[in-house]
Amino acid sequence: MMNLAIKDIRHKLGRFVLTTVGMSLLLMVVMGMGGIYRGLVEEATLIIDRSDADIWVVQKETKGPFAEVSTLPRNMEERIAAMEGVESARPFVSHTIQRDYHGRVLRLTVQGIPDDGSWLPLVRGRPLSCGHFEMLADKSAKLPLGSELRLGNDTYKVVGITERLNSPAGDAMVFVSLNDALAIRDHQPGEAIRHEREARVRRFEHVAYGSTAVDHAETLRSARERPAALPGLRIGAVLVKVRPGWDVEDVRRRISALPDVMAYTADGQREIMLGGVVARSRRQQALFRKILGAVSAVVMMLVLYTLTLDKIHDIAMLKLLGARQGVIVGMILQQALLIGCLSFALACLIGNWAYPHFPRRVVIVRGDQVVLFAVVVGISALASLIGIRKALRTDVGEVLS
Amino acid sequence: MKEALIAENLCKHYGKGNTSVVALDNVSLALRTGEVVALLGPSGAGKSTLLTALGLIRAPDSGSIAIGGQIVFDNGYRTDPAAFRRKHLGFVFQRANLLPFLTAEENVRLPMELDGLGARASAARARELIESFGLANRRDNLPSELSGGQQQRVAIARALANRPELLFADEPTAALDSALGRLVMEMLRDVAHEHQTAVLVVTHDTRALDVFDRVLKMEDGRICGQERSADVANERSRRE
Q1: Which of A97, A188, A274, B199 could make an SS bond with B192 (beta carbons 3.0 to 4.6 A apart)?
Q2: Mutation target among A311, A400, A401 for the B interface, most CBs of B within 10 A
Q3: Do B52 and A399 touch (CB under 8 A)?
Q4: How far apart are CA A240 and CA B82, in angstroms?
Q5: Could you read off the pLDDT of A169-214 as tens digits, one per residue?
Q6: Is residue B240 predicted with pLDDT exceeding 80?
Q7: Pairing mode, if any, of strands A148-151 and A261-265?
Q8: Where are the domains of chain A?
Q9: Which stretches of chain A sit within 8 Å of chain B by CB?
């Protein structure tokens, strides 16, 4: 039996191609929304996953450096490192900056790293080779290898390019040494430093010369007269690696017992990120995805229904010639599935080209694609039902009209 | 000649209550194998309704139809009309109604393949039929690439594909010029005589009535007269 569906498609190839292209663009958007959703989750948990820390130690009564501001004294690293069950402790410094760079806005998340960053996914260049003024930048920052960037009082040279490392907000990440990260964050212009110095001097101005050391000490004890404490170097968190054989939860509880810190396991931090920081965006993405899925289904239904309507006279003729219902159903169903499958394949091809150009990361997971393919096949079959119903109800007498 | 079709007391109404229209009013007729019969009548006489009833396209309200000795309708279908049409009936209409996405040959092959005949056998018979209608060089053309007359010849070839016992034609020459119209009518007559197929042609065209064996006249849903076609043709020439 000749394949009527294919012959009909060949006859109206232009229309079929346009329909398929239109459907594929729609599916590409659906797929892209899913990918953006995945990208959002991946970006949100990227630092947590890559940091290889068992425990995150943060400021007391806070949820950590991603959910809110968390500051700890620089020496917290040594305090934690000295605790039982701790294999290593390293400081975590991360902050976002925005600069103008060759006429464009450059948003970067500056990440301080305690080593040369050789564990990062470098696609070009090399790891950091000295403790200062070198930088590893993510590709999405569009900073060429060898380019220089002025941050604070210092100029940093891009010596390595990483790939797919973005902050939870989607900003490109750059990696510098820990001290450089602190210097960039705490940089103050000379005028601000002069004002600060002047304020300190003024506090001592009314202290009478010739007073005894006891009198002077009394004065300094008064809160009103005490000079402001010099701000020490602050870090965002301390990342803890637990000694092998020790229970992570047990070590976490011990650290949490300290009066000025909170400790979360890596899973706990991940939950905080996904449950709080990006939860709303995730829900919105998921909702958009569902709406787009529904729109695609409706559009597909309408397209297939219209294609069937165009063939009503031919279908009536087929019925007059005694075609079994299966022949007519098969023709419509095959066309629907062909449109669905080809649209999906085209959507994958267009997506592969287009997604890297999206401003936010689009992560296409094979499992998601398989599910989407199954959904597309299901929707195609479902969408064809309305056309099939119309076809089966077609009066043979239509052929006379 | 044996009876190819016997229809008795066919009734069909359209609408309900005061708006009810009688389309067929106790119509009875018989067609014999190899006979070519014209069905004449003004618009609204019920010709097309009768053809759709006899062709198992739209069921009459009551009556009975027997085709080839088998009762197919007796106040309700006694067989699957689609399957019966496929095996025993052929149709030709005013428009050729060829499937636009199939070539001439494929259009002729289609009824045979729908009936389960293999691709090779159906293609061979389709070629034979197309050649017999003088379209050998057009068999790979789509309907849109054929003239009106060529399309109608393909439609007749398609109607004959499954060697039907009955062929129904509804105004088959309405869209053709008189010469081509006559040619088509003659083809139908030749088909009837060569294939021993009973042919019922609904027509307004009285110019080619001499090709028919009988002429049935219909008015107000009833067959009101029956003449030999030669008589009708003579009467028409006398008037002219």
Answers
A1: B199
A2: A400
A3: no
A4: 79
A5: 788 999 999 889 988 888 877 787 778 777 767 766 666 556 666 6
A6: no
A7: unpaired
A8: 4-43+280-400, 50-188+236-275, 189-230
A9: 1-2, 4, 7-8, 10-12, 313-314, 317-324, 327, 395-397, 399-400
